[in-house]
Amino acid sequence: MKATEVPEIAGAYLFEPTPYADERGFFCRTFDADVVRSVGLDPHAFVQDSVSRSVRGVLRGLHLRSGAGEAKLVRCSYGRIFDVVVDLRPDSPTYRNRAFFELSGETQTTLYIPAGCAHGFQALTETADTSYRIDRPHDPAEDVTIAFDDPELAIPWPLPATSMSQRDREAPSLADVLKQKES
After folding, report:
1. Which residue ranges traverse the bilayer (predicted)?
2. What is the pLDDT of residues 51-108, one digit of tens each?
3. What is the pTM of this model?
4. Catalytic site residue 95?
């Protein structure tokens, strides 16, 4: 497994495993504490694992947490997703940068998203399972959502959004979210 910095988002990494394939299918390590530690992250900081299943066109996000934020490891364990990260850390050298990835069950690549970054994704296949490992327990009172179609972000979603939560459909613009943070 190798770790690669994401140039568009300071502190973000891609963890790319080495799958071993044969006539039975494949095997790969999807988490390695030593590799995570090698880039300065504490592998023991992650306290909760979750998984979502989405169908083609489902869009989830853009989500982040207020307060101390939430760092996460995201991996598409089955299918393919278009994954988006937006750096919303005012002190970051990559503040307001965006980065886009295609994550898939074929590669099992994991994306590390630092606390303070917004995250969202869209399912590209009929079924897409996305696994999350987060660094603190979820508190719904800290949930923040930003409009997926905010013109300021101009995210090039590859498919029309076929389904999303009411919270995501009614999300405010980035400008409105940033104003709320300032008050």
Report:
1. none
2. 999 999 999 999 999 988 999 999 999 999 999 999 999 999 999 999 999 999 999 9
3. 0.94
4. no
d(CA 94, CA 77): 28
At residue 134, what are phi and psi to the nearest 5 degrees?
-115, 160
Cα four-point dihedral sign 152, 115, 99, 110: negative
Domain limits for position 167: 2-182
Which residue in 63, 95, 112, 119 is the catalytic one?
A: 63
Number of separate domains in the chain: 1
Q: Which of 13, 112, 119, 132 is catalytic?
A: 132
The label of the residue with tokens 């979502």 reads: 52
- Of 91, 77, 61, 78, nearest to 161 (Cα)? 61
Is residue 63 annotated as a catalytic residue, yes or no?
yes
Peptide bond into 62 cis (omega under 30): yes
